[in-house]
Design goal:
- The longest helix is centred in the middle third of the chain and has 17 residues.
- The chain has a six-stranded mixed β-sheet, sandwiched between helices.
- With about 280 residues, the chain is α/β, with parallel strands linked by helices.
Length: about 280
């Protein structure tokens, strides 16, 4: 029998597929036999095992039922589904939830950690309209925003440094009421004792060190980790020595950006211009 070798380190999909195959092999079932128990085809099982098809919530819950694994597979698939488009993000979210310091830079949209639920929903609704994601994926992304924010309400609170490109506050998302509430959230964020909010104005020009969103995490043991993404992929850098130049560039960004007081004044001015 020609079995494809699986590398669980390759991706979250591969890790799920390896776990599914291990559980199936332990019981001596073929893919067709597992599919029959789950109410799907053996071809579907094969596609999930080899990472060619991501597991849906229904599939993972069905596998948990058949294998008697509680909700472990469903929870594993949940993290995978949230980030099906961007490699490295499931692991990043786990580290973000325990980071001592979070430094983020965003272009074009308010970052997830600062979004209101309504802003997040409007953002994902636009992605659905463009057929970039499905309605189900949109709902899961909005839910993930809330989960990430809730994970940061721990004690002691992490230090969060946020630098937003000017376009983040100038780009309307949803109706005026949504933007007004989002501006209020940003102003509230700036008032917290463990946060710093800055705007990187357009006039920075070439002095802006980043052209894509980037996040740098300082973990409890003071090791560094960074995450950067483009429209179609993400990259998680786990080696501190490679993150140090990014951290240096971030400090340069903060030095060139508006102060928090000037940033708050800009947000208030834009907010007043919102009908």
């Amino acid at each position: 029998m020609n079995r494809k070798e699986l590398d669980p380190e390759k991706s979250p999909s591969a890790a799920f597929g390896q776990r599914l195959r291990t559980l199936r092999d332990e019981r001596g079932w073929t893919q067709d036999e597992l599919g029959e128990r789950m109410g799907c085809s053996g071809t579907h099982v094969s596609a999930v095992e080899t990472g060619r098809r991501p597991p849906t919530r229904r599939f993972a819950a069905g596998a948990d039922r058949v294998f008697g694994t509680g909700d472990r597979l469903e929870r594993q698939s949940r993290a995978l589904r949230y980030t099906a488009l961007l490699e490295g993000f499931p692991e990043y979210v786990r580290h973000e939830a325990r980071a001592a310091e979070i430094r983020l830079y965003e272009v074009g949209v308010i970052p997830g950690l600062l979004q209101t639920p309504e802003y997040a929903a409007a953002l994902e609704a636009d992605a659905v309209r463009r057929e970039a994601i499905t309605p189900e994926q949109a709902s899961e992304r909005v839910a993930l925003v809330a989960e990430r924010q809730a994970a940061l309400t721990r004690s002691p609170s992490p230090q969060i440094f946020a630098v937003l490109d000017e376009g983040c506050v100038l780009r309307p998302m949803g109706d005026p009421a949504i933007m007004d509430a989002q501006f209020a959230r940003l102003l509230e964020f700036a008032e917290r004792p463990t946060t710093v909010l800055q705007i990187a104005p357009f006039r920075m020009g070439a002095r802006r060190p980043f052209s894509l969103p980037v996040t740098v995490l300082t973990l409890p043991d003071r090791s560094l980790m960074s995450y950067a993404e483009s429209a179609h992929r993400g990259h998680l850098e786990r080696e501190s020595s490679f993150v140090l130049p990014i951290l240096t560039a971030y400090h340069q960004l903060q030095a060139e950006a508006l102060s928090q007081a000037a940033s708050v004044a800009m947000i208030e001015q834009v907010r007043k211009g919102t009908p």
